[in-house]
Amino acid sequence: MSRFFVDAWDPAYGASFEAAGAGPAAPSSAQVEADHELPAVDWRAIGPRSGIRAPDVVLLVDGVRRIDASLWTAEDDGGSYPGLAASYAAGVVRCDLERGAAQLAGAKVGRGLFTASPSAEDVRAGSVHYPVHRVSGTGELGKLPAAVQGPLTALEVEVSGAARIDGDLLVVDGPLRNRRQLPRTLGYVKTQHSQYLDARLTAVVTGLAAGERSPVFRLGTAWGGWSWYLRLPVAHGAPWAGIVRVECSADLDVAEAVALADLSVVTLPRFASTPYKDPRAPQNLVPIAGLEKQLRRLLGDVRLLHRALAAAARAASPRPPAASGLPASRPAAAPPGRPAAAPEPPAAGERG
Q: Structurally, how many domains does the chain consist of?
């Protein structure tokens, strides 16, 4: 049989490289400019450059989100809209490389009711507030989870901005998207859903040794930007094992992008996780893994929140009117000469 490889990730988390349906060789429709740092014909692996050292402080920011309940509105015209009650949180870890210390530098929790309903109002579930985030369009239920990303990204920008200092490096878990205006910032993409390069350039990427990167290239996607691939420390395995894609702002010139790429080579590998500690090793960076756990705890108990939302929905629903003209039911009186029936004993588990 042909050679095969086992992906290092726990299958419950998907795969570290998720190609399109046509297979790993299927090209992306994005326009790629590969001739900036090196001509495409001269592409080769690039290792740590002499004189480049990691910054003293690295900030790693991440966010988590969760659906607390699905709901439906009842409109005055008899119509209905789907909605989601969601919780989300963002936090930043400050890693002081000079002292070898890491600490949570800030975290915030947000919640919201996401729906296209024109009549929706804020929901209070006990002491928890879900402000309305009205989405455009018809608000199909399957598209509502994506609406949570905008407020979550804004929260990530807020908490990371409050923790920044001169000379630091900010690493965002995931694509930069609309955070490209942030200075000294890298987008860290640990799962590869698309293959942007042709077969010859892809061979350079899959041939990287641990701690090596590809040359910088430019993507012509909607968000655009500079990008490169980096292989983290990993045991020998699948061609894409341990490979991440790193981004920086399209507003930078090529020399500035290359400088950040060189900085990533001497910075990111030191945070790589190990398989016996993390099912998504090595791509799930150690500070990010710890931050995710802390943020999920901050979201609160989803069962209690679901219960509180259900209670709030019942309290907001009008009670059906009682039937008119009918007297309230009373227990039947015992026939003359016969004592009233004794009450039934309480069921098991109901005795005081």
A: 1
